[in-house]
Write a structure and sequence with these properties.
Layout lengths: L7 H23 L4 H22 L31
Length: 87
């Protein structure tokens, strides 16, 4: 069976987000913040880091669900260039 739960790119993005969150939480705890503040800081950093690394890491072009650049689907414009078709 060759079915994977996550692609390598997804696993990398989530791992980098987790490591960022843990590092931020540990640094907050070492700086004198309480446990609750450290957990909240780590969770916030992990959430932001996943979005950041999702845009930073190149999309997996071999995956069938890969989306083109900037998440916009490719459209086939058969009417030609819109600026030149004005007439």
């Amino acid at each position: 069976m060759d079915h994977h739960l996550l692609t390598a790119r997804s696993a990398l993005v989530l791992l980098l987000g987790l490591l960022t969150g843990v590092a931020a939480g540990v640094l907050t705890l070492l700086s004198g913040g309480g446990t609750a503040r450290s957990v909240l800081c780590g969770a916030a950093a992990a959430g932001l880091a996943v979005g950041f690394f999702n845009r930073l890491v190149a999309p997996d072009l071999d995956a069938p669900e890969a989306v083109p650049e900037h998440g916009r689907p490719e459209t086939s414009d058969t009417s030609g260039d819109s600026e030149n078709s004005r007439g």
